[in-house]
User: Fold HTH-type transcriptional regulator RipA from Streptomyces doudnae.
Amino acid sequence: MTIVRHPAGEQTHDLGHRERTPVHQHSQGHLIYPARGVLSASASGQTWIIPANRTAWIPARHDHSHRAHGRTDMRIVFVTASLARQLPDRPAVLSTTPLAREALLALTGPDPAPRSREARDRLRHVVVDELGPAPEEPLHLPEPQDPRLRELARIMERDPATTATLGELGHVIGVGERTLSRLFREQMGTGFTRWRTQLRVHHALVMLTEGAGVLETAHACGWSNPSTFINSFTALVGQTPGRYRRNLPSA
Assistant:
């Protein structure tokens, strides 16, 4: 990992595929934008997928970590407490407008411009003004705490296309289906089927961002019927996988 720290506090991280940052926190809230690639961010017991048309917001003093999917150019912009009041009081992923993207890139580029403090402050205001009203994206996935659920999640992460039922997965890890079903409701706030769909859509976002086609992604993530994949993806992301792929910015 290569880190560039700019004089005004912004950071640029060049992350290799599957590279992780350790769990950490900052005294200021900050915005995380992947100018290239796709990130996952974990905080508050959940994981968010951050593709290249989204920006993550992490409030001050929230423990969090990142993971890169593919070679990723991660940009970080810190936000003052007064500006932070315009953003959610919890970690969130927000839609990124073209104007917000250009302001984020200007603040974190190899030769950040403009150089005056006042001009940079204006750019931060532009970013927050653009992101503040943006809808929160439902791109989060609850992280299991129980070791039995963590083992099940690892199996699904390795093979999101598996058609194994909850009972069959329970047999593999030595836990009854009824117990697993109860744990899902208690710890994840959802049932196994919905959680599995969310997990598969997360994998689909990573694949599409890395250039995979819609049909290839559908099959790799467990959908034998592309129409069902499109419906599931659209319900969670708010746009079809084809449109999402076309709208990805070029880095």
Notes: The first strand starts at residue 2 and ends at 5. Residues 106 and 113 are 6 Å apart (CA to CA). The chain has two domains: 2-131, 144-247.
